Amino acid sequence: MDNQELLRLQGTVENIVYRNEENGYTVLEIIGGDDYITAVGSMPQVNAGDNVNLLGYFTNHRSYGRQFSVKTCEVERPSQAADILRGSLKNGQKVYSDKTILLLGDVEPGAEIASERNVFIAGCAMGTLRSGVGGEGSFAAALIMKPSTLEVDGHRSVAAIRKRSFDDSYTPYPQICTVEDGRMRMDTISGRTWNHIFERLAQRKEEEQDAEE
To answer: Do the beta carbons of residue 61 and residue 79 sit within 8 Å?
Structure first.
């Protein structure tokens, strides 16, 4: 099976048929053109209504028939969807949003989370974090900041040592990364830091409203 040519499948999730909350294994139905297709694999972040970009191959299950076996899953949520995501991102999974993302979980090695605004991980960030995609004035923060790749406002930092498996031995040490004077800056999250962040967010919102008018 591993030697099969991988195919790309795009569509909208119509229904979540089954999900194992422990390992993220999911059975779902997507609409691809005029067809309903059953897709199976590790997709804990996918919800009904999401637009998905899947990479995998078709198989024939003895009991359930033709299915698409998912190797990687990229989710692009509609702009009106909630930005609060629950559960951890596993290896090969990607999430993208045009709004600020709050992930209540971990970003494990090999996973990626990207936002045109800000990214906050209420857990351990060990995969790829990207904030301010195509913009500026954003931040990326995590309770445990250990990403393999960190990108903020187009500025990128790559870890010298990349872990291939999840490490739950890290101690929580909330940090936030911003860009000031063209350089990435990492700070410990404190009350003063949050006040500064909220002031920047409020200022950016006012600028966007003025631009719309």
So the answer is: no
